[in-house]
Specification:
- By secondary structure, the protein is α+β, with helices and mostly antiparallel strands.
- It folds into two domains: about 180 residues, Sandwich (Jelly Rolls), CATH 2.60.120.10; about 110 residues, Orthogonal Bundle (Arc Repressor Mutant, subunit A).
- The protein is about 40% helix and about 20% strand.
- Helix 2 crosses helix 4, helix 3 packs antiparallel against helix 4 and helix 5 crosses helix 7.
- Strands 1, 2, 3, 4, 5, 6, 7, 8 and 9 form a nine-stranded antiparallel beta sheet that branches.
C-alpha cells in the first residue's frame, strides 16, 4: 500500500477549522468556514443539502460517488468538485472502501467600493483584477468532478504544516494557500485566458531611480559614473544620457547637488566644523568644498551658516564643538 500523502493531517484533522481566518483578496473578503481533512467510512452517506457559500471537495484517497443536482458522478483519488453556492448535492463513500476528503468551505463577499479602494501604485489593481477573474470563473464552474491537474490539494498540506510548525508568517501562508486553492480549482475548468495587461516599465525612468537610490545611499563615498552604471546594468555613456533626460543634469552635477544639499542641512543643524562636514559628505577637502559651495551659492559655507543663524536666532545646534567659520 502506498503511503498516504496527507497522513500527517490525520493527527489533528480540524486544527485549521479552529482558526478564525478572514482576509481581503482584491475587492473580495474571504472568510474560512471549514478547512480540514475528513474521512467517510465505507458506506457513509451525507444526504442532499446545499450551502450559500463555496465548498471545495478534493479526494486524496478512496472512492465513492456524488450527486450534483440530478446527475450522479463517480469519485476517486485525484478528483475535485465544487458545491455552491446553492448546488444541491449528495455524497456517499464506496460500500467497501473509505473515502478521504479535503474540504475548503469559504464565504466570498464582494466588498463595498469604499472598502475596496486601494493605492494602485503598489499593484493592488493587479490583485483586484486577478481576484475578479478567479471569482468569475468559480461562478461558472460546471457541476461535475474534474481532475486536480494543478495540484490544489498540495496547499492544504502547506497550510497545515504552517500551523503545526507555528511558522513565521503563519497567517500569510494560510492566506496564500487558500488563494492558490481557489486559483487552481478555477483553472481546471477555464479555457486559457489572455494574460492581464500589466503595465511595462519606462526603463530609462526605472534605471534613473535605481541609480539615484544607489547614489543617495553612497554619496558620502567616492563614487563614479562607471561604478553606478555597472550597478544599474548599462554603459556609462547610456547612464549619462539617462541623467540628462530625466534630471536635465549630468551625472557629476547630480552627485554634487546631492552632496551640497546635505552640507547645507548640516551647516544649519549641527555644530560640526566645515572640515568635518566636508569629510562627512564626500568632499576631498574643505578647500574644495569652499570652492564648489561658493560657485553654487555665491557665499562660503561659513557665510551661509551665519546667514541662516541670523534668520533663525533661536536655532540651537545639536552637536558639539566650535563653529570654525
Amino acid at each position: 500500500m502506498k503511503p498516504f500523502h496527507f497522513q500527517e493531517m490525520e493527527e489533528n484533522r480540524y486544527a485549521l477549522d479552529r482558526l478564525d481566518i478572514q482576509f481581503r483578496w482584491g475587492n473580495y473578503g474571504i472568510r474560512v468556514l471549514k478547512f480540514h481533512l475528513t474521512t467517510f467510512p465505507p458506506g457513509k452517506v451525507v444526504g442532499f443539502h446545499k450551502h450559500s457559500e463555496y465548498e471545495f471537495h478534493f479526494i486524496p484517497r478512496g472512492k465513492g460517488k456524488v450527486i450534483l443536482g440530478d446527475r450522479e458522478h463517480s469519485l476517486h483519488e485525484g478528483l475535485f468538485y465544487l458545491t455552491g453556492p446553492n448546488v444541491v448535492h449528495y455524497q456517499e463513500a464506496d460500500a467497501h472502501e473509505a473515502m478521504d476528503e479535503l474540504c475548503l468551505h469559504v464565504d466570498i463577499v464582494r466588498l463595498s467600493e469604499c472598502a475596496a479602494q486601494q493605492d494602485a501604485q503598489w499593484g493592488a489593481h493587479w490583485e483586484a483584477e486577478e481576484a475578479e477573474q478567479c471569482v468569475k470563473a468559480l461562478q461558472s464552474i460546471p457541476a461535475y468532478p474534474a481532475v486536480d491537474q494543478y495540484n490544489a490539494m498540495h496547499w492544504f498540506l502547506a497550510a497545515y504544516r504552517a500551523w503545526r510548525e507555528n511558522q513565521p508568517g503563519l497567517f500569510t501562508t494560510i492566506k496564500q494557500s487558500i488563494i492558490q486553492i481557489l486559483l487552481r480549482a478555477a483553472r481546471c475548468h477555464t479555457d486559457r485566458q489572455e494574460p492581464l495587461p500589466y503595465p511595462s516599465r519606462d526603463m530609462n525612468a526605472h534605471r534613473f531611480r535605481l541609480a539615484t537610490r544607489f547614489i543617495q545611499d553612497n554619496y558620502a563615498n567616492p563614487i563614479t559614473l562607471e561604478e553606478v552604471s555597472e550597478k544599474v546594468g548599462v554603459s556609462g555613456r547610456q547612464l549619462q544620457r539617462i541623467f540628462e533626460e530625466q534630471a536635465s543634469l549630468t551625472f557629476s552635477e547630480y552627485v554634487e547637488h546631492l552632496r551640497l544639499s546635505h552640507v547645507c542641512t548640516d551647516l544649519v543643524e549641527s555644530a560640526r566644523t566645515v572640515e568635518q562636514i566636508a569629510a562627512e559628505h564626500g568632499f576631498s577637502s574643505s578647500n574644495y568644498l569652499h570652492y564648489v559651495f561658493k560657485k553654487r551659492f555665491g557665499v562660503t559655507p561659513g557665510q551661509y551658516r551665519l546667514q541662516q543663524l541670523e534668520r533663525k536666532p533661536d536655532l540651537k545646534f545639536t552637536g558639539k564643538g566650535d563653529l570654525n567659520l
